[in-house]
């Protein structure tokens, strides 16, 4: 019962991780630059994401421009696009597989099949967390290095936006969920290897007949 509750908790974490990864991939605020200038009425907030760049004016106007050209983008943005999409796909596969493999569901067949499905879903979650954590760390490193570079003007410097923090938290949820699913299945199999089932040996029919024949000789 404790293992089933732990799997359900990991499944909830994985759901948060999937939704967070999808939101972080689509949000435009991976980079944020607030340019107030001399007049706060004309303040501008510039945001850059993986797929579009947006500008928000203090007057209420909001405009976005899609990034159509892929080859003109920096390498870390191209890598972040690819790996974040892979993270979303793997985490979605993990949700489908673990739904079949969890103990609290009536899907997946016998216990061994459910255990294997649960382990496969945990691997998907773990890989999705890795794919979400690596590009986010690389993206954050580029933001910080550009911010600390003295040769870059202040108007071109950015800070990490909300999408970066969402991606970090989602990757952490997916990693924790993957470890819990894989560990729960591994413990069960490891216990079966340490304490193998006892085999009961029953005498054969031939031995019983021989024993009866020997008893008749003494009568």
From TrEMBL:
It is a multi-pass membrane protein. It is found in: Cell junction, Tight junction; Cell membrane. It comes from the Eukaryota. InterPro entries: Claudin (IPR006187), Claudin_CS (IPR017974), PMP22/EMP/MP20/Claudin (IPR004031). GO terms for cellular component: bicellular tight junction; plasma membrane. The chain crosses the membrane at residues 84-105, 117-139, 163-186. GO terms for molecular function: structural molecule activity. Gene3D superfamilies: 1.20.140.150. Its main location: other. Pfam families: PMP22_Claudin (PF00822). Keywords: Cell junction, Cell membrane, Membrane, Signal, Tight junction, Transmembrane, Transmembrane helix. Residues 1-24 form the signal peptide. Claudins function as major constituents of the tight junction complexes that regulate the permeability of epithelia. Belongs to the claudin family. This is Claudin. It comes from Scopus umbretta (Hammerkop).
């Amino acid at each position: 019962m404790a293992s089933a509750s732990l799997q359900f908790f990991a499944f909830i974490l994985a759901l948060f991780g999937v939704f967070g990864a999808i939101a972080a991939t689509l949000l435009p605020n991976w980079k944020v630059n607030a340019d107030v200038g001399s007049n706060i009425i004309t303040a501008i907030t510039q945001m850059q994401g993986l797929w579009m760049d947006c500008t928000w004016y203090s007057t209420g106007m909001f405009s976005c421009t899609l990034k159509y050209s892929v080859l003109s983008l920096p390498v870390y943005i191209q890598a972040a696009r690819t790996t974040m999409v892979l993270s979303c796909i793997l985490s979605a596969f993990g949700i489908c597989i673990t739904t079949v493999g969890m103990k609290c569901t009536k899907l997946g067949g016998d216990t061994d099949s459910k255990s294997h499905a649960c382990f496969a879903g945990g691997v998907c979650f773990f890989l999705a967390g890795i794919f979400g954590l690596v590009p986010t760390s690389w993206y954050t490193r580029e933001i910080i290095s550009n911010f600390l570079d003295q040769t870059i003007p202040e108007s071109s410097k950015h800070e990490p936006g909300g999408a970066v923090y969402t991606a970090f938290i989602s990757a952490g949820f997916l990693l924790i969920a993957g470890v819990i699913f894989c560990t729960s299945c591994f413990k069960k199999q490891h216990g079966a290897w340490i304490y193998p089932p006892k085999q009961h040996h029953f005498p054969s029919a031939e031995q019983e007949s021989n024993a009866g024949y020997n008893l008749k000789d003494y009568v």
